[in-house]
Amino acid sequence: MPSRSHLTTMPPALIVLTLALLLGMQPITTDLYLPALPGLTQELGASMAQAQLTLTALLLAFGVSQLFWGPLSDRFGRRPILLLGMAAYVVASIGSAFAPTIDALIIWRTLQGVAMGAGVMCARAIVRDLYAPAQGASVMSKGLSGLGVIACLSAPLGGLLTAWFSWHAALLALSIFGALSLGLIALRFKETVPRKNPKALQLATLARTWLTIAGNPTFLAFTALAAFSYSGLFTFLASSSFVFIRVLGLSTTQYGLVMFANSFVYLMGTFLCRRLLVRWGARRAVAIAGALTLSGGMVMAALALAGVQSVWAIELPFFLFMLGHGIHNPCGQSGAVGPFPQAAGAASALNGFIAMVSAFATGQWLGMHMDGTAQPLIFGILFWSVLIALIAWTLVQRYGRP
Q: What is the CATH number of the domain that holds 155?
């Protein structure tokens, strides 16, 4: 099936930039904030479980909201949903920065997650609006390369803002990012839905659509791959600031550099993804990435069992995981939406919802098991690494053909 990018007058570079900013909402909303997490926990007198909730509530709201944003965007188009979502994101970012209590911060972060759902869901749907599945994986990889650049900058910037000013400044920076993205959507983005679906919000139509999507084996295979890969990453995101700063003694600036290194490796993974897609296709690329992921999880656990405790005993194996994530993420997200050109918003929404429910459960588990050591982080990543490799080598190989 040929590209459908002729349906819009936007140049390809603008499409990739738009995707990068929308997809980049997710890492900048989490990564830039991570160096500030121990400090705000102390200043607001919060428990570790409450601190985890500022992340997990955001992600649960992010996942659930997509179930609403997806059909709305199929009915009314991507552009109005993006304008509404990005405006709400700016408001929620300002509210988070000036939250006086941990409860207020949780509420504002929840609204931020709802707004973020509009941007990320639409980004995945836009790829399916404009491109066939095979080409869509490559375009998604380019957008996720932009996400990688944003992620590279987020944690170091968050560490510097926290060290120079306070956690308030780190969260306020998100409102600037949101305002810039809103400006681009308002001024340059053109509608990509080829034909709006007037029945998209009818309950009978919606129920049939959800059942069709949820019963599709290609959707399930790629969604499991994307969800499990993100859950492994979220295990690191939700626990690493406490492990690296409180257990291993890094400063917030040093921790920001650690996160920069992880994001840079992820960026390299997206470049590798495009090379593998051209040479071998999505299923072979995912199989290779599964080996990288499993190797990273097993080496990290082996070092921990051998009594090796250091930054590099965690980081070097995690580089392998992030390299694999740079392949699993674009292939999983584009592959899940690929079978549904007329319901890309709904498919993107369900894909995102499942991933965030998995991440939320991971965050809840971490909140109960964080014990002042690196063990929950290490063995959590091992658990997800095994599941990712199994999905990559079985379900994706059987059902992953476009």
A: 1.20.1250.20
